[in-house]
Amino acid sequence: MMRVTATRPSGRSIATAAVLTVGLLFGLSATAMAQGPGPQRTAPPEMANLPPPEQATPPGGAVAQPMATLTVQVPVTSNMSLVHVGSSDSFAITPEGRQAATDLFEALGAAERQETAKMTEKAKSALAIYAKIIPRENYGGEYTALQWFADYLLADNAKKAEMTTEPLTNEFFKMFGGNNYQVLKEYLQRKYRLKDTGDEETYTGQMRKAYLEDTILFNNPRRESWEHTTELVSLLDLKPGAIVADVGSGPGYYSFRFAKLVGPTGRVIAIDTVAEHLKYVEQVKTNLGVTNIETLQTDGKTLGLKGRKVNAVFLCSLYHNIYAMSTAPERDSFVNAIREALTDDGLLYLADNGLVQPGILPYHGPYIAKELLIAQLLNYGFDLVRQHQHIPQRYLLVFKKRPDNQAPAPIPPGAGFGPAPGAASPAVRP
Fold first, then answer.
1. What domains are defined for the chain?
2. pTM for this one?
C-alpha cells in the first residue's frame, strides 16, 4: 500500500473532470486531450462543442497540428460526491469499535494466561459487536480481520489448522499471532489507545501504527469474502513469462498471487514507498521459497524501473489518491513513468472503489467514479480496452497506451458516459 504524501491542489477543483458550475445538476463535461500529459483543463458545458481555435502559424511557416479532443459527459445521478478520499470512515475509532478491540485484547491476554472461560467470554463479546458494526461502520476494513482472530481463539485445534492452511494466511498469522499474539496486542494498543506505548505522538510511533494498520487491511485473511479477489485476478490477462509491476504492493497480497500466474519464467516487481512492507515481502519470499518476485522502493513519483519494460502495471485502490491528492507535476511524473515502463502491447490495470448508492451495500471507504479515471487517462494517452464490475464497490479498468500522434480509440459501450452537450454521442474532434 503506497502512502501518497502530496499537497492537495488549491482552488475550487481537485478533479480533472470536475467543473463546479450549475452544470453539476445535469452532468460533468470532461474534455480529455488525446496526446501528451500535462494538466488538463476542463471546459464548461456551454463551451464543450465550440469549434477549435484557428491554427497558429509558428516561426518558419509550419502549421501546428491540433490535438484530437474527446468530449464526454459524466452523468450525476445522486447527491453523492464523485470522488471521496477521506480516510476517517476507514480508520476511525468509534465507541463500539473500541469496545470490540478491548474485548479482543482481553481475550488475547486470557489466552496467554490459559484462562479459557474468560477468553471465551471476551472473544464472543468481541464477535457479537463486530457482527453488529461491520455492516454499519467498516465493511471491507480491518474489522473482519480482527473478527477472524476472535474466531481463531474460539476454534479447536483442527479448525485452527484449517484457518491457517493457506500459506499467505499462515505468514500473516505468524506475524500478528506469534509469541502469544505480541504484534496483534501491540497494534490494538496503538490503534485504540488501550495502553500507552510511550511513542504514540512521535513520527516513529505513528509510522509503526500505520505499517501495522496497512498490513492488517491489505493481507486480511477475510479480504476474499468482500473483495472476491480470486474473481478479480481471473480478469487479468497475465500469462506465463510476463513481467508485472505491482505498484503500491504493500505487503504483497497481490504480488504473490501474480507470481503463481506468471510462473518461473515470469517476474513480479513489487513496488512501494514503504520499506517495511517490502521487507515483509522479502521475508515471506524466503519462507515460501518464491523466487520470481523482486522488491523495489520508490518515492511514489516514478516506478523506479530505470528504463526496464513490463507487460503489465497493476494498481489496486491507489489511483484515487493520485487523481485527487497529487499535484499536477507529481501526477504527470507518475503516469508518464507508467507509459514509459509498458511495452507497446502492455496493459495498465486500475482496480479501484466505485460509488455505491445508499442501501445497496454497506461499503465505507475512499471511492471515485470510474468515468473520472477514464477521462483523465485518455488525456495521458491511454485508451480504455475493457472494464469489469465484479462486485458493487470495486471495478477494474484495463487500459492500453496509445501510440503517439494517434487519435483516441472509441470508448467501449457501458463506460458510463452520457452524450456530450449538444451531441448524440461522445465526439472526437480533430
1. 88-218 (no CATH), 228-429 (3.40.50.150)
2. 0.81
